[in-house]
Fold Peptidase S24/S26A/S26B/S26C domain-containing protein.
Amino acid sequence: MESITPQEIQRWLDDNRRDRDWLAEQTGAAKGTIANWLAANKRKPIPEPTLRLIERLMCDDLLGEPQFSFGEAKIIRQAMDQEGYKSLRDFMRDAVIANARQLVSSSESAGDCDSILAFPEITLLHAAAGSPVHTDGDTWTPNRQVGPGRFACQLHGDSMAPNYPDGSVVILRERNTLTNPTLKKGQIYLFDCGGEKALKVYQTRVATQEEIEAGLSYVSPRDGKTKVPVLKSLNRSHPDIVVKEPIEWLGWLDKADNK
C-alpha cells in the first residue's frame, strides 16, 4: 500500500485549516510527538497503526468516506473520473451490484450457495480486565449470528465489572471495518499495550504539571485545556492508565452486539 509522507500530512493540515493540536487529539498522541513526526529535519517515524489512522482522516476529506486508506481513496477517485462518476454513492452501488452478481454466479456454478452464509466461528482474543495481559488468539463459536467484521474477546479480571465480569466474552467490531475509526471519549475499545491487550474506556483528563513536563500532554482545540489521554476501568477500584505512547487499538465494543 502506498504510504503518505510527513510533508503530505502537513500540507493536508494546512489546506484544511487544521493544526497539530487537532491531529494530536484525533490520534491520541502528545503534541510533542506530533511535532517530532512532522519535523523538517531528523523526524521520528510515524507508527504504522497511527499512519493508517491519519490516512483514513485524509481520505475523509478526499472522498467524504473514511473507511478507505489514502492509497485506496486515490485509486477510487481515479476510477470514478475514468468512468464518469460524480457521486461516490452511485459508484459504490454499481460496484457492489457487479461484485454480488459475480459472487452468486461463482457460487451457483460451484453448487455451494449456502456456504456464503456459514459463520461457524470467529476469532477469540484474550484481554485483561485489570492490568494488560499477553495471551495468544483462539477461536470461539457464538450462540447467535453476528455481523461481519466482528471478533470475540474473553476478559480476565474484574476491572470492567459489573457490566463485563471476569470470564465474560464480548463482541467487538474490527477497527479497519469502521466507517470512522477514531477514538471517542467514553467508548470501550480493545487496546494493544506493547503486545499486551486490555479492554478499557477511552477518556481524557486535565494533565498534571509532571505529565506536561514529560511531554505526555496536548492542548485541546475545543476548550484550550492541557490534557492527557487515559484508559479507564468501569470498576473504580482500578486506577487509570495514562497513555505514554501512541495508542494502538484493535476494536470497538458496540453495545448493540453485546445485549
